[in-house]
């Protein structure tokens, strides 16, 4: 799926270049988190392979809130920048919600601004730029069957994955159960749910004691431990499942490409094209 999406984005970028457009994305970094620089470097390589310009605005760990917001304001107003991304985490003391409000919704390639999240919650998903990880979850789930009419569960209503995913699932006609840290009996809550989406960030959170035989599990959790990267699902339960996404190698590769598909959609929105059906 990631390879197919990458080919589609590359073709779209080529067509835009042939039309005289210079596609350009900017990412803003405001921390000294070493993992952030690895992620940004990976995105830069992908952007180069796809044929679009990619600039990094590194404000460092000492950036003030006003400097961060002014930088995002400037990029949002710059007609030569077609996509803006704020890399998380931010340095301690910086307010991510205030910062995100400074990104123009039509340049918000990660779909995290209030404007885009509000459109999704209002059932106007076709007008929004969608957060890439929830998009990836839905695309992978769809390989196993229709979501409409199915009982599904979202474990972890976090801001970047779980909350937008809940509204997107509702928009797709699913009946949604939400599992939070206050849920007393997780196994009972997940009973009868054909699809289980999990994005908490806690290794081996779900296993044989919570999941049921034959379920389809989409694991968007990322955890780093001594053994490397793992998801939120205990691999011991894999043989009992109908299907699952491994970590690494599941949701991640699809998410990475969808950031750039969002970028192409954002650029076309800025050009006044009708992309509601794309």
TrEMBL record:
<keyword id="KW-0368">Histidine biosynthesis</keyword>
<keyword id="KW-0028">Amino-acid biosynthesis</keyword>
<dbReference type="GO" id="GO:0035999">
    <property type="term" value="P:tetrahydrofolate interconversion"/>
</dbReference>
<feature type="domain" description="Tetrahydrofolate dehydrogenase/cyclohydrolase catalytic">
    <location>
        <begin position="2"/>
        <end position="110"/>
    </location>
</feature>
<keyword id="KW-0554">One-carbon metabolism</keyword>
<keyword id="KW-0658">Purine biosynthesis</keyword>
<protein>
    <recommendedName>
        <fullName>Bifunctional protein FolD</fullName>
        <ecNumber>1.5.1.5</ecNumber>
        <ecNumber>3.5.4.9</ecNumber>
    </recommendedName>
</protein>
<dbReference type="InterPro" id="IPR036291">
    <property type="entry name" value="NAD(P)-bd_dom_sf"/>
</dbReference>
<keyword id="KW-0378">Hydrolase</keyword>
<feature type="domain" description="Tetrahydrofolate dehydrogenase/cyclohydrolase NAD(P)-binding">
    <location>
        <begin position="133"/>
        <end position="269"/>
    </location>
</feature>
<comment type="pathway">
    <text>One-carbon metabolism; tetrahydrofolate interconversion.</text>
</comment>
<dbReference type="GO" id="GO:0004477">
    <property type="term" value="F:methenyltetrahydrofolate cyclohydrolase activity"/>
</dbReference>
<dbReference type="GO" id="GO:0006164">
    <property type="term" value="P:purine nucleotide biosynthetic process"/>
</dbReference>
<comment type="similarity">
    <text>Belongs to the tetrahydrofolate dehydrogenase/cyclohydrolase family.</text>
</comment>
<dbReference type="Pfam" id="PF02882">
    <property type="entry name" value="THF_DHG_CYH_C"/>
</dbReference>
<comment type="function">
    <text>Catalyzes the oxidation of 5,10-methylenetetrahydrofolate to 5,10-methenyltetrahydrofolate and then the hydrolysis of 5,10-methenyltetrahydrofolate to 10-formyltetrahydrofolate.</text>
</comment>
<keyword id="KW-0560">Oxidoreductase</keyword>
<feature type="binding site">
    <location>
        <begin position="156"/>
        <end position="158"/>
    </location>
    <ligand>
        <name>NADP(+)</name>
    </ligand>
</feature>
<keyword id="KW-0521">NADP</keyword>
<dbReference type="GO" id="GO:0009086">
    <property type="term" value="P:methionine biosynthetic process"/>
</dbReference>
<dbReference type="InterPro" id="IPR020630">
    <property type="entry name" value="THF_DH/CycHdrlase_cat_dom"/>
</dbReference>
<dbReference type="GO" id="GO:0000105">
    <property type="term" value="P:L-histidine biosynthetic process"/>
</dbReference>
<dbReference type="InterPro" id="IPR000672">
    <property type="entry name" value="THF_DH/CycHdrlase"/>
</dbReference>
<feature type="binding site">
    <location>
        <position position="222"/>
    </location>
    <ligand>
        <name>NADP(+)</name>
    </ligand>
</feature>
<comment type="subunit">
    <text>Homodimer.</text>
</comment>
<dbReference type="InterPro" id="IPR046346">
    <property type="entry name" value="Aminoacid_DH-like_N_sf"/>
</dbReference>
<dbReference type="InterPro" id="IPR020631">
    <property type="entry name" value="THF_DH/CycHdrlase_NAD-bd_dom"/>
</dbReference>
<dbReference type="GO" id="GO:0004488">
    <property type="term" value="F:methylenetetrahydrofolate dehydrogenase (NADP+) activity"/>
</dbReference>
<keyword id="KW-0511">Multifunctional enzyme</keyword>
<dbReference type="GO" id="GO:0005829">
    <property type="term" value="C:cytosol"/>
</dbReference>
<keyword id="KW-0486">Methionine biosynthesis</keyword>
<dbReference type="Pfam" id="PF00763">
    <property type="entry name" value="THF_DHG_CYH"/>
</dbReference>
């Amino acid at each position: 799926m990631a390879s197919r999406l990458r080919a589609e984005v590359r073709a779209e970028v080529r067509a835009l270049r042939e039309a005289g457009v210079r596609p350009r994305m900017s990412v803003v970094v405001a921390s000294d988190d070493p993992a952030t620089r690895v992620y940004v470097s990976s995105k830069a390589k992908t952007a180069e392979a796809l044929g679009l310009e990619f600039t990094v605005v590194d404000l460092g760990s000492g950036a003030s809130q006003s400097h961060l917001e002014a930088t995002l304001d400037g990029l949002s107003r710059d007609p030569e920048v077609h996509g803006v991304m704020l890399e998380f985490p931010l340095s301690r003391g910086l307010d991510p919600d205030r910062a995100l409000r400074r990104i123009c919704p039509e340049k918000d390639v990660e779909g995290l601004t209030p404007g885009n999240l509000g459109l999704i919650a209002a059932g106007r998903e076709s007008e929004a730029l969608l957060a890439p990880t929830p998009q990836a979850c839905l695309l992978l789930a769809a390989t196993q069957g229709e979501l409409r009419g199915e009982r599904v569960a979202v474990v972890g209503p976090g801001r970047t994955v779980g909350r937008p995913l809940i509204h997107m699932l509702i928009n797709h006609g699913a009946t949604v159960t939400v599992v939070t840290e206050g849920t007393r009996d997780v196994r009972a809550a997940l009973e009868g749910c054909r699809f289980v989406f999990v994005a908490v960030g806690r290794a081996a959170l779900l296993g044989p004691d919570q999941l049921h035989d034959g379920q389809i599990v989409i694991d968007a959790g990322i955890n780093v431990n001594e053994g490397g990267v793992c998801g939120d699902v205990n691999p011991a339960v894999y043989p009992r499942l109908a299907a699952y996404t491994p970590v690494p190698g599941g949701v991640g590769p699809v998410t990475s490409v969808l950031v750039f598909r969002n970028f192409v959609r954002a650029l076309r929105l800025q050009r006044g094209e009708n992309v509601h059906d794309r």
